[in-house]
Amino acid sequence: MAGHKGYVVSFMMDVLAGVLTGSQFGGGVADPRDPDRKSGGGPLRVTIDIARMLPRSEFESRLERLIEQIKSVPKATGVGEIFFPVELEARSSALAAQQGILLAGQTWQSLVKLGGPTDTPPPPGARAVSAAQSEES
To answer: How far apart are CA 8 and CA 13, in angstroms?
Structure first.
């Protein structure tokens, strides 16, 4: 989806998840993987009853075809793979489950400080990472 359709969808998502929720929008939203900034992204939940529109199996089949189409388009020079939304996050979650959770140094310090009075340790498997380390990953 490109051109005017992509622009409209992107704009409306910013209206719904940013403007409407009172969160950041446009240039005010930071990359959530930036350990030194709050993302500012808004909490938006849209619930759709797929079965009211078409059978679930048909939806899943059509979605798989869409993903195949997206992943099969010619890639720009230097691009190894094309990802669909949430694919990177799913891979990151699987990796975190295996290797532990990397937290920004400031977040780590806040957890240690908050847990101190009650002797509550940081989450199992969590460890601090510097901004330079997070840029490498």
So the answer is: 9
Residue 92 backbone class (left: φ over 0; alpha: ψ -120 to 50; beta: rest): alpha
Which of these, 95, 90, 73, 93, lies nearest to 82 by C-alpha position? 73
Distance CA 84, CA 91 (A): 12
- Report the chain's terminal Cα–Cα distance, integer Å: 29
Query: Token pair of 112, please?
Result: 């240690």
The residue extents of the domains of the chain are 1-47, 100-137
Residue 50: pLDDT band (50, 70, 90) is very high
* Cβ-contact 81, 73 below 8 angstroms: no
Cβ–Cβ < 8 Å for 52, 70: no
Write out pLDDT tens, residues 67-101: 999 999 999 999 999 998 889 989 988 988 888 88
